[in-house]
Amino acid sequence: MADEEDPQPLPVIRIDEPSLSATIGINTSPLTGLDGNKLTARMVKERLEKELIGNVSINVLPSDRPDSWIFQGRGELQLAVLVETMRREGFELTVGKPEVVTKMIDGKLHEPIERLAVDINEEHLGAVTQILAHRKGKMVNMVNHGHGRVRMDFVIPARGLIGFHNEFVVETRGAGLAHHVFEGYERWYGEMRSRPTGSLVADRRGVTTTYSLLSAQERGQLFVPVATEVYEGMIVGENPRPQDMDMNVVKAKKQTNMRSAGADHAQHLDAEKTMSLEEALEFIMDDECLEVTPNFVRIRKTILSQQQRGRAKGVKKQAVEA
Prior knowledge:
- Helix content is 24%, strand content 30%.
- It is of the alpha+beta class.
- The strands form 4 sheets. Strands 1, 2, 3, 4, 5, 17 and 18 form a 7-stranded antiparallel beta sheet that branches.
- A hairpin with a 4-residue loop joins β8 (138-144) and β9.
- It starts with 19 loop residues before the first strand and ends with a helix.
C-alpha cells in the first residue's frame, strides 16, 4: 500500500519479541474426557497453528513430547487469554509453569527486560515500591504530580511481572495504573524469590469428605470443597511450610453406634480458596502444572505418582551434588 504519486513503502512495524514461554499439551490427568470434547493432540496442534495465522506476536515450537508444544508470547496475560479461549471452545489442556525466554549473548545468559510505568496514589507508594523491589525492579524515574498521584518508571525482568498485576490491583485497591513495554535483553538479574510455601497433595483418588477436610485444614489453606473428585498428585491446598505434604482427603468417618450430643456440630469447615487462571499460573512451582477444562482449573503435580516424585527428586539431588 502506497501513494500513487510517491510509491514509497510504509515503514516496517516493529513487533516485540516473545518474552514468556509455557508448555501447552493435552490433558493427562485421570479425569481426562469428563468435561471437554476436544482431547487429542491433533486438535490441540491444529488450534495452536490456527492461532499463529492471526497473531504475529506469538511462536509455537515443538517440545520433547509429541503431545505438547511450547507457546511463546508477550506475557502471562496473552497466555491466559489463549488458554481461556481454548477451554471455552471445549479443549482440555495441561499448562506448564510460565518461564522467560532467555538468550546466550557473548557466552553470558541474558533475559528479557521490560520498562514498567505505574501511576498510583501517594499512600500506596511504599507498598508498590516494595513489591517491585522483591521482583528485581529498579526505579529509573519518579514524578509527583502534586495532586496526590505519583508516576514511577521501573526497569524490571519480564519474570518479575509474572503475577504482578493481581498483587498490584490488591495493594492499590484498584486505583493504580500500570503499563509495560519490551526494553531489550540484559544480563541475568539473579535468583528471584519463589513461593515460600509448599503444597498439600492428595495421595489417592476419590471424593473429598468433610471428615478428612477438617483434618486437612489444620495443615493449611484448602483449595477444594466437600464432595470434590480428586486424584493422586492433585494439589488440594497450600502448606504454610515450604515442604509438600501428601495427605488423604477422601477418608470417611467410621460409623459406630456411639454418639455424643452436639459433637458433630462443634467443628467448622472454612471456605476454600478459589483462584483465577492467572492466579493459578502464578502459584504453581517448577514441578507443578495446571489441568484446564471447560469448567475447572485444577492444580496438580507434573509427576502424579508420589513414589515416582520421590525418585525424581532423589535423582535431581544427586545431579546437583555431582
